[in-house]
Please model this.
Amino acid sequence: MDGILNALILLSNFVIVPAMAYGSQLALGALAVTLIYAILRFSDFAQGDTMAFGAMATILLTWALQYWGVSIAPLPTALLALPFGVLCTIALCLLIDRWVYRFYRRVKAKPEVLMIVSVGVMFVYNSVVRLIIGPGDRWFVDGERFIITAPTFKRLSGFSEGVAFKTTQGLTILMAIIVVAALFWFLNRTRTGKSMRAYSDNEDLALLSGIDPERVVRTTWFIAATLATIAGVMYGLDKSFKPFTYFNLLLPIFAAAIVGGLGNPLGAIVGGFTIAFSEVALTYAYRKFVGYLAPGDWTPEGLVQLLSTDYKFAVSFVILVLVLLLRPTGIFGRRSS
Model:
């Protein structure tokens, strides 16, 4: 029995909890992508670098607060700087919409054109972030590192394996729950949220009903920028900040949005956790886990790892291809009649 419990604790430490935190980050990013697709009707390839910009703005103020001796220990100081990062990202998105995307909306450009334009915006964002903060790793987390440490759990429980739950993982999961709940309340209960849903369902009918399209667009960018910044900051706190990493996150974020059903908020959340658990579970080395469950003291000689961590993002790609081949509309997508 102890072997089974130790195996479960091990799995919790290295698969379940990390995948929950990573899935929360992907879900927030995928929500931003799916809102832009559903309401503005194009795939925003700049989303990963929007996350990087929001995280960068937050980091810069975090460093300033840390230098001035301002903190909210045991929580990370970055939580104080997060609203500043959100406001900077909202301002950037609104400016880019006014200077770039608005023209293409007025000329009724096809979604493919807007998608290509977003690729150009992505490279601009990426260059600006690297120019300001540099291309290397940046650490900005402070405060208490763990909610509970493995040695503490071992001492209290008597098990060979200990549960280690990082503060950043707990904050990521909690933040995702709060943000998602607030977003669904906003979309379903407020007049502006209902206007956005109406505009998404039928643009012409929404305009005839007196809905201001520019207000809908501004609100969409406001929400997308907020989601992107929170996702970017939580990812940076949980791991580390490196601009090119956020460019790489674009694949799992889009995979999450498409797996769930592009344009469906609930699907974005389910897709985020599907991708996260798939990546983490397939790249984890199960040698010690199998050793706890195997009879006697038998332990496999190899790592018992299905894929190397070098192929982590390949998992997202394979899942994305399979979904596009077998169910292009995604899990919650509606088939066109």
Observations:
- DSSP finds 14 helices and two strands in the chain.
- The mean pLDDT is 91.
- The CA atoms of residues 287 and 303 lie 5 Å apart.
- The longest helix spans residues 2-40.
